[in-house]
Amino acid sequence: MIKSLIQSMAVCPDMNKVYPKIDYGKGVYIYDQTGKRYLDGSSGSSSVSNIGHGRTEIADVIHQQVSKISVLPTHAFSSEVVENYLDRLVSFAPDGFSKAWTVMSGTEAVESAVKLALQFHQIRGDFSRYKVISRWNTYHGNSVFMLDIGGMKIRRELYRQWLNNFPHISPAYNYRRPEGLSEAEFVQSLLQEFETTIVEEGPESIAAFVAEPVIASAMGAVPPPANYFAGISRICKKYGILFITDEILTGFGRTGKNFGMDNFNVVPDIIASGKGMSGGYFPLSAVIASAHVAQAFIDTKTTFLGGYTFACNPVGCAVGNTVLDILERENIIGNAQKMGALFLEKLQVLNEFEIVGDIRGVGLLCGIEIVQNKHTKEPFPASMTISKLIGEKAVQKGVVLYPGRGSVDGTLGDHLQLTPPLVINEEQLDEIVEVLKECFKEVMSEIKKTTVSYESIES
What we know:
Layout: E1 22-26, E2 29-32, E3 37-40, H1 43-47, H2 56-68, H3 80-92, E4 97-103, H4 106-123, E5 131-135, H5 144-149, H6 153-156, E6 168-169, H7 183-201, E7 206-211, H8 228-239, E8 242-247, E9 270-273, E10 285-290, H9 291-299, H10 314-329, H11 332-347, E11 356-362, E12 365-370, H12 386-396, E13 399-400, E14 402-405, E15 414-418, H13 426-458
Parallel strand pairs: 3-13, 5-6, 5-7, 7-8, 8-9
Antiparallel strand pairs: 1-2, 2-3, 4-10, 9-10, 11-12, 12-15, 14-15
Helix pairs in contact: 2-10, 3-10, 4-9, 7-8, 11-13, 12-13
């Protein structure tokens, strides 16, 4: 137990464990106080350190900006560093985006995007539109409201009495599509479910649909089947529903494109971004609005009813601006695309293990689903915490992964998410794969021993 820390599921969750204390980081590695080196295969918790650790250039920028001013009375003043960064955010987004606003966390960004959607409809006189549709087994933030919109059952359960229970639809989980359905038929069934939900709820009551381009931590890097998001976008337009993409994890190069949705040639109405946009050097997230959404506010001279103390903070904008410089100068997004394809190829060697069910991903957002039976896809009992066991073994061997559970139904299902810094090279990818092979071998051996012991007792 750590003396003064409120230990949580996100920060040192095991009260019986002594956690190594990290001293510093450099590139894709972090080093503890004993000098032991770990390859940060999760880029923080998770997918934050896109440009790697230890960038003194950003430390200098923070020092320079703090020396000038660190926070503004934003109700009375603007700032050149803020305005310049917002211009760059709009330019970094797909064509057709015109306005941006920064906050500090992913939760704040997605919640602000949802608030923006609600206010957009009200400006236009659509006061009945307030519901937000999302998908089960997805995560959109940790405020109670965003847990309500999200579909991660493990995180929702404690707060069920506080939830409004907005409508949810099935995730686009191609690996576990119903037997007998082709991929195209599966997509059609998902789109039919979406449209049916809209009709049953009442189209006039739906404000927005929100989705991650690639379902990340809740399911372990699950990309959509072909044509899924094109169909979703078409249905949203048909019923006047705003399409919000949660790019908190998938944005700023993680998938080998500026934003994850760019991989599917679909342009949303609102983008929420965070995590890697600051490389982890400052708490920074943002909402980026399309001209279609922004124009309603401009035409009516209506201000957005969203406010946070650190909204449009000049230090965050200075850091974000420098991260964009680094992404462009070092072609880091191009490296993510190249190394991501190579990583998925190298990970295929793990298919030799009986417990590896699926290897998937886009760019350097990769995942491995762990199953009890490769043929039936049966998951392990939740009590075995297989993904956690593999994650602990990997840390002991010097590689940090991001274990997860609940990918099958919110409770059952083990997976590993692999999101190393986007500056990683091939040799470092090999390092991760070799450690994974060792971990799977050890876990397989332990599972077999446990099974033999259990069978002996039964007999």
